[in-house]
Amino acid sequence: MSVRDLDAEELDLVEGICLGPGVPPKWKEVMAPCMTIRKEWIKAMMKRGLGVTIALDTRGEKKGLIEYCPVEFASEPITGGTSLFINCMWVMSPSWGKGTGKALLSHVIEKARSYGGLTVLGYESDKWFGFMDYMPSRFFKRFDFQEVDRDGSRVLLYLDLGGKENPLLLPSKKRTVPESDKTLVEILFNSQCPWSGWMVDKVARNLERYDVVVKPINTDDRSVREVYGLSRGVCINGVPALKRMGTVKEVEALVQEVASRKGRKLSGKKNKKT
What we know:
Layout: E1 2-5, H1 12-18, H2 25-46, E2 51-56, E3 62-70, E4 78-79, E5 84-91, H3 100-112, E6 117-123, H4 137-141, E7 146-151, E8 154-160, E9 168-169, E10 183-189, H5 194-206, E11 212-218, H6 222-228, E12 233-236, E13 239-242, H7 248-261
Parallel strand pairs: 5-6, 10-11
Antiparallel strand pairs: 1-2, 2-3, 3-5, 4-9, 6-8, 7-8, 10-12, 12-13
């Protein structure tokens, strides 16, 4: 196995990992625009120090990737410290448990030494989309990352490589929204992850049958992440309800729960085939 850094002209390799062979063709079709946006975002962020490293087997087959940048440009609501930040790390399922993650992380740890540390936002006892064990905090703790902050299941982990200050996680925030008879569902997404764009499309279309207001929120701008204390997730009437990407069923259950608390049945339209 080998690991190597990509340049801006090789981002089709990123697409092959983000939308790997296990993704159904119909999903890839929907996600194609999201992936195009991701690649353009990577190109722009490379000018700010973002890097992408991929792992390949001896035949040149893609096994996984890790994406990182200076912490001040992190895609998550992080503040303070001097370190590199891991935006994303993904190993394709056939390579799980075979050392691919270790090879990718070790590569970036060496890069992070000149920054004084390496930071990552992991998840504890919480799965993306309700089933995906994405960025588990326990993996990074195996490499001496220490918990320095948390917000529920979101755990900020830091590997001290001589830095002088730990980073902090901006907490998710409850906000006051205008009173309305309709439930406000804000779906947070960004250009860093094509799956968050897919989630917006999927959830918005399925909530059309409910009498709710769906508002997609792009969190590419740091000022937006500071307002919400989130980069991806769902807020219901200004309250953070999911602090990660979720399924349509999860969001529907949250909407129904709000309606139940208000003592009224949520009106709906005829269910549409999606």
